[in-house]
Amino acid sequence: MGFYKKIDKLAYWFRYQATYLEMAYYLKQVLNGKVNSYIKAVSETHRGIGKTTALARLSAQYNIPIIVSTCAEANYIEKYIPQYFPKYFKKHKPKAIKLSLLGKDDKKYKIVLIDIELDDIKLEKIDYLSRGTIVGYKHEY
To answer: Quick one: angle between helices 51-62 and 2-31, nearest 10?
Structure first.
């Protein structure tokens, strides 16, 4: 059984790295002006592959906020992910903003990351309030 656990852990690591590298690639494309925005639709089969952790890592690395649906998700991104993966967050911490609070501080963001269940109304609200480019995951459960 020990061999199975090692293989399973290695498979998870590869899935996470692929997730992170894909989102980092598209974020760089957006930052360089080669792509306007990037929103990847994900379903239930994509659960547990490190999407939120990858976005938190990119948030800290590039100082870009992540738009989330609830305070619990914001708390998880800002407090718990840096505790679980401290090597990625030594210099900077990720920033999460609850969707309902976006635009209340009159701050406009050039670019935002998203990790929420998204419909067209929410997407328009994020686009209008951030006045920026959107990169991230659109959950379709």
So the answer is: 40
Across all residues in the chain, what is the average pLDDT? 81
pLDDT tens for 86-135 read: 888 889 999 998 877 766 666 777 788 887 766 666 767 776 666 667 77
Do 78 and 94 contact (CB within 8 A), yes or no? yes
Tokens linked to 95: 């920033």
Joined together, the tokens standing for residue 106 give: 């009159």
What pTM was estimated for this model as a whole? 0.81
Determine contact, residues 81/23, Cβ cutoff 8 Å.
no
Provide the β-strand partners of residue 39.
136
Look at residue 59 in the predicted model and tell me its pLDDT. Answer: 94
Q: What is the maximum span of the chain, computed from C-alpha positions, in angstroms? A: 55
Rounded-to-integer distance, Cα 57 and Cα 101, Å = 22
